């Protein structure tokens, strides 16, 4: 198992799904964690469990990444060792609805854009300067999607947000090319988490239909890849990883057993 003892990792959207799985994986590797999400009750339970199991320090903090002032305030108020953030995992994100673009809800578009794109920007803008200031071998890991490579019907806005994640990752990598900071974009395909329940506004039945007939990835699969990228030697930069279930070729080409 990779060892990241004395490293500090900040994870957004850490209360469930891929974020929670990353918290488990990095705690197991000995890293200290700043866990951010809106569900503080879940964060506190997770923090207590990880500290008890692995003996790492965990700081659970309420954060809505859409709130630029709140992101700035959270980072500004970090003190001591918690300001030495070695790894930022921009995981917070969601999809809402599967309607055609011309039938979509602009309010839901705002939520996706504000969370998936602007929230990632706010955290990156706040934390990368800390890494530079402290001359850390920093690492920004963004959780993108195969949706950012291939669009699919009903997903235009969500796909656009994940395409933005890809190009923001590429652009940041260029902007810090003269610094000891790595930038990785992880692009999962079908991962069975609460993602589809959120997309279908709470409908478990519709969410289950998405994964019927196929063995999807699980959150721990993605966390393993994130940990692998973070654990590579400092001179090794894993720029991009695309990962899907065996029977998924692209976002819209999937073989399902009947």
Description of the structure:
The protein is an alpha/beta fold. The chain has one domain: Rossmann fold, CATH 3.40.50. The protein contains 8 helices and 7 strands. The protein has helices at residues 17-28, 40-54, 68-76, 106-133, 156-175, 195-199, 204-211, 219-231; strands at 8-12, 32-37, 58-62, 87-90, 139-143, 182-188, 240-243. The mean pLDDT is 96.
Structure keywords:
single chain; 258 residues; alpha/beta; Rossmann fold; 7-stranded parallel sheet; globular
Number of helices: 8
What is the general shape?
globular
Summarize the main sheet: 7 strands, parallel
So what's the CATH class?
Answer: Alpha Beta
Radius of gyration: 18 Å
Average of per-residue pLDDT values: 96
Distance between the terminal alpha carbons, to the nearest Å? 38 Å
- Could you tell me the CATH topology label: Rossmann fold
Strand order of the largest sheet: 3-2-1-4-5-6-7
CATH superfamily: NAD(P)-binding Rossmann-like Domain
- Uncertain spans: none
What proportion strand?
Answer: 5-15%
The topology string of helices and strands comes to EHEHEHEHEHEHHHE
Structural class: alpha/beta
Fraction of residues in helices? Answer: 40-55%
- What is the number of E strands? 7
Number of domains: 1
């Amino acid at each position: 198992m990779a060892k990241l003892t004395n490293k500090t990792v900040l994870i957004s959207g850490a209360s469930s799904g891929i974020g929670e799985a990353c918290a488990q994986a990095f705690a197991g590797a000995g890293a200290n964690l700043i866990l951010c999400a809106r569900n503080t009750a879940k964060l506190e339970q997770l923090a207590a469990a990880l500290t008890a199991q692995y003996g790492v320090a965990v700081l659970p903090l309420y954060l809505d990444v859409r709130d630029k002032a709140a992101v700035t305030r959270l980072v500004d108020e970090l003190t001591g060792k918690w300001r030495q953030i070695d790894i930022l995992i921009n995981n917070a994100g969601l999809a809402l609805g599967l309607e055609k673009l011309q039938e979509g809800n602009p309010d839901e578009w705002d939520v996706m854009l504000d969370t998936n794109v602007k929230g990632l920007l706010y955290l990156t803008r706040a934390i990368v300067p800390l890494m530079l200031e402290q001359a850390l071998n920093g690492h920004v890991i963004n959780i993108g999607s195969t949706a950012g490579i291939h669009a699919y019907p009903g997903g235009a806005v969500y796909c656009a947000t994940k395409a933005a994640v890809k190009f923001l990752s590429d652009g940041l990598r260029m902007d810090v090319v003269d610094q000891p900071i790595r930038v990785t974009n992880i692009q999962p395909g079908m991962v069975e988490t609460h993602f589809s329940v959120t997309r279908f506004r709470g409908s478990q039945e519709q969410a289950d239909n998405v994964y019927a007939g196929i063995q999807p990835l699980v959150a721990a699969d993605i966390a393993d890849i994130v940990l692998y990228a973070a654990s590579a030697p400092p001179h090794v930069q894993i720029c991009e990883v695309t990962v899907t279930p065996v029977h998924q070729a692209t976002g819209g080409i999937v073989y399902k057993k009947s």
